[in-house]
Specification:
Elements lengths: L2 E8 L3 H9 L1 H7 L2 E2 L8 E5 L9 E10 L3 E8 L2 E12 L2 E9 L7 H27 L7
Antiparallel strand pairs: 1-7, 2-3, 3-4, 4-5, 5-6, 6-7
Helix pairs in contact: 1-2
């Protein structure tokens, strides 16, 4: 339970998906407004509307970057201090994204883990897919 895992295949090239993961403007449209730069060591913030117990700011740092295959960032906000890893793999008909968020404290962060797991599901299945369609042209994929 201490890890969130999401996988999705997009009918786009690995370079197109990578661009949506690492371009600050694209990232802002499908995830959150940010001051991201794809440079190891770069510290940045995601910003969204605050809710009780969370000021709306996620403090991050680029930990690893291996274009166009892998991006890993620290992710701290509210009671969360985790690592998010995006891994891209070319597959027949497109690119598979494997997302993994690790570092949750079992039991104590169950509600946070659950809410973020639901959020990532929507983000990966709908918001990132919509950004890819908008940026590179709809391909007739489902959803």
């Amino acid at each position: 339970m201490a890890t969130i895992r999401k996988t999705r295949v997009y009918p786009y090239s690995i370079d197109e998906v990578w661009e949506c993961l690492t371009d600050s403007s694209s990232l802002g449209r499908w995830l959150m407004e940010n001051d991201f730069r794809p440079e190891v060591g770069h510290e940045f913030c995601f910003r969204t509307d605050p809710v009780p117990g969370f000021d709306g700011i996620v403090y991050c740092k680029v930990l690893t970057i291996d274009p166009p295959k892998e991006l890993s960032i620290s992710w701290r906000g509210g009671d969360v201090d985790t690592i998010v890893n995006f891994k891209l793999t070319e597959v027949s008909g497109g690119t598979r994204l494997d997302l993994k968020q690790t570092g949750f404290r079992p039991v104590k962060q169950f509600v946070t883990w659950f809410m973020l797991s639901l959020g990532w599901r929507k983000i990966i299945r709908k918001l990132l897919a919509n950004e890819l369609d908008s940026k590179f042209g709809a391909t007739g994929a489902d959803e």
